[in-house]
Amino acid sequence: MVKTILFTSRPTETRAALLENGKVAELVVERPDDIRIAGNIYRGRIDSVIPGLQAAFIDIGLDKCAFLHASDVDPRLLLEKDSQLVEQYMNRLRGKRRKVPQVPIEKVMKVGQEILVQIIKEPIGSKGPKVTTNLSIAGRFLVLVPDSDFIGVSKKSMDLKKRRRLKQLLSSLKPSGIGFIVRTIGLEVSEEEFVKEIHSLIKAWQDLRTKALSSENDRLVHKEIGIATRVMRDLLDNEVQEVWVDEEKEYEEIKAYLQTVSSHLLGRLFLYKEKIPLFDKFDIEKDLERSLKRKVWLKSGGYLTFDHGEALLAIDVNTGRNIGKREFEETLLHTNLEAAVEICRQLRLRDIGGLIVVDFIDMRIMENRKKVEREMRYRLHRDSSSIVCTGLSKFCLLEITRKRTRPELQQMYTDICPTCNGLGWVFSPATVTARIDRWLKRADLRPEDRKLTLAVHPSVAKYLQEKNRDVMQKLEEVHHVKLHLMEDENFDQDEYEFYPQGKHRDYGDVGA
Description:
Aminopeptidase; alpha+beta; CATH 2.40.50.140; disordered C terminus; 27 strands
């Protein structure tokens, strides 16, 4: 499989796309007003303990308190050393016991108590972030687990001999009292690379601990790395042939990171300098727009529909225009197999989490059902997120749970439509602003046409004037234009219009 990573940075948003055989498989988006905080470690204070939920709410200095469930509490941080529960927990880390009785949270936590927690799930909707006391620091090949002698290997590897060899190797390299987990990308690296990263991660942990003990006012004691470095850490593997970056600052950041961890990959990094926007050059903007639609067409003429419920996502497979050329059962099998491939791609691309139910087209032959189930499991195995998949039922339903760590793509790019009260979606003001930015990037303006009036819906104008006031200035600086903002209540939220200042509105260019 040929993989390519594209990294584009604009004043309104930063995007990274992973292409597999020319098609977008994953998309990472970060905006100035919505920076990712998963992985950050905070020194928090317990705000309240709720025995009925077996949970506590932790004040970490954000707008909303973080949610901590009892199952995410490490008793060693809170209980006396001679506690029986601590001993049971230590036995589990040594592999002697798989299940440990859950510690009643009201026995180990008190209001006002300070504790180190790490964010494992971004704030979503009205919910605050979810945190854990089981801290970890991720590197490119390894994950450091402090205060533990645990050694683990990525579950993506099913080779028992390789797993055993890696565990023995790490056991001989690491110091006592610090555990490590080998990431999927680390399954093929050398001993020298392990040694280098072990030293780097241990230093990061020592710095974190020093800051947590010495700093009284700063709640944030460890910040997850920036999006450019994070994308390289999580997505770059030996199958990636090219990495294209369109901004010199991010290019130099990625270059410095690769020189530190994988200098042999520097030859795959390229700075994109053409005038055509990077994502347009690789012709993937339309593919990204389709990823937000309810209906996704298949090459055969069949299609998928994505319907969000309160507790789950339902994906329905339909034959559509695919009438087939052979037997009816074979047509159904072909459509279901094609759908399995596209569904797994869409789960990654849309970053869908939670419970997903797939309704495949009913098939009578049991062997055909097994083929579809095998295809789904094979494709899901390539997903880096934690996934659990049931077997295909007699009604051809397949249930999937996919770990959710941040809002999915549709929640980030769209707002609930105020007209239909949630039955449809429109582009959010942030997305409209990003589209305006891309329009200016594509526009070939003459010097005398660089004073423009921008007409937008009032909600977009409010976003630019109040929530993100410096974006207009950045757009003017980057594109060398002078913009005059004008509200138009007749516009839909996802519409905008440019026209030269002092000229009639009909002269303009409308985007939607």
